[in-house]
């Protein structure tokens, strides 16, 4: 506290006033987690004003975007959120210009907001700009580039541009496999999106392949007894069932149906232990198991 209050003191490049702003921004999140929403918002506004008066542009932009996220996620105020996101991006561009890593981060954050809002064309444009900046500054093979490709794939999928979405997801997955530990959760997330998209495109072998990869990641990171693992098992069971229905030979079809049944039974066992027996996800598993038995 004494160090923060020293006039003009700087630690890690922050003045005392900017350090207080950063601390208040952190405490704002703590207050919200404790259910003190109004106090949290007031502290975030105070932090932002302190950053502005301290002349710390980078911190001001961050807190402005935090305020935008607060309005969107915690208050559901889309209009205020959009206003703050635009202000944050404008301040970032004015301070750093386009070709700066903070500008790329802000572009992606605003793009994700527009995707959540449903303005998918604007989201695609902003995330594409973020990728261009990051590739120029960091090179193609960087974790933040990979994540932005994943996000752009999600936007393209929602735009029904499935071919583009596949390309972005596959690029993201290739980079993540090079840059991240083998069973990193981010790899599993992209594999799951690819598995679901390939199933939508009726590319069932590709769908099964990626759901298998995702399942391996889930089992090594969160284990069998988890709803996320159950969800992947259910999706893998559905994809395997679709593969079995493609007019394969009788013996191959029988083996594939057995596999599908095994995945679905594992998903059902997990969900029965986690949810009420009448829960919709339990009913979904029963329904798909019924389809397997019918095919047999």
TrEMBL record:
- SMART domains annotated for this entry? TPR
Check the record and name the InterPro entries matching this protein.
TPR-like_helical_dom_sf, TPR_rpt
Gene3D superfamilies reported for this sequence: Tetratricopeptide repeat domain
Each TPR repeat, start to end: 146-179
Looking at the keywords, is Zinc-finger present?
Answer: no
Q: Which residues form a coiled coil?
A: none
The answer, when asked if Repeat is one of the entry's keywords, is: yes
- What highest taxon heads this organism's lineage? Eukaryota
Keywords (alphabetical) are: Repeat, TPR repeat
Task: Indicate what this protein is called per its UniProt record.
Answer: Kinesin light chain
């Amino acid at each position: 506290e004494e160090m923060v209050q020293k006039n003009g003191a700087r630690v890690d490049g922050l003045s005392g006033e900017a350090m207080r702003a950063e601390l208040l921004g952190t405490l704002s999140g703590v207050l919200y987690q404790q259910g003190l929403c109004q106090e949290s918002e007031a502290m975030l506004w105070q932090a932002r004003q302190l950053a502005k008066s301290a002349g710390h542009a980078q911190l001001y932009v961050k807190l402005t975007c935090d305020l935008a996220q607060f309005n969107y996620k915690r208050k559901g105020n889309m209009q205020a959120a959009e206003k703050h996101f635009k202000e944050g991006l404008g301040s970032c561009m004015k301070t750093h210009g386009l070709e700066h890593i903070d500008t790329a981060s802000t572009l992606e954050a605003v793009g994700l907001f527009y995707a959540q809002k449903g303005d998918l064309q604007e989201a695609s444009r902003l995330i594409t700009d973020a990728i261009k900046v990051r590739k120029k500054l960091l090179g193609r093979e960087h974790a933040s580039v990979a994540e932005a490709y994943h996000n752009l794939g999600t936007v393209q999928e929602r735009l029904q541009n499935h071919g583009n979405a596949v390309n972005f997801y596959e690029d993201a997955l290739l980079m993540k496999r090079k840059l991240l530990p083998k069973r990193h959760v981010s790899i599993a997330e992209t594999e799951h999106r690819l598995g679901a998209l390939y199933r939508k495109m009726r590319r069932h072998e590709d769908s099964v392949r990626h759901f298998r990869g995702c399942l391996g990641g889930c089992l090594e990171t969160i284990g069998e007894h988890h709803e996320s693992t159950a969800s992947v098992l259910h999706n893998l069971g559905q994809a395997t069932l679709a593969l079995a229905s493609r007019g394969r030979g009788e013996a191959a079809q029988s083996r594939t149906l057995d596999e599908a049944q095994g995945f679905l039974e594992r998903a059902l066992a997990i969900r029965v232990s986690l949810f009420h027996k009448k829960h919709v996800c339990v009913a979904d598993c029963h329904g798909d198991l019924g389809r397997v038995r019918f095919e047999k």
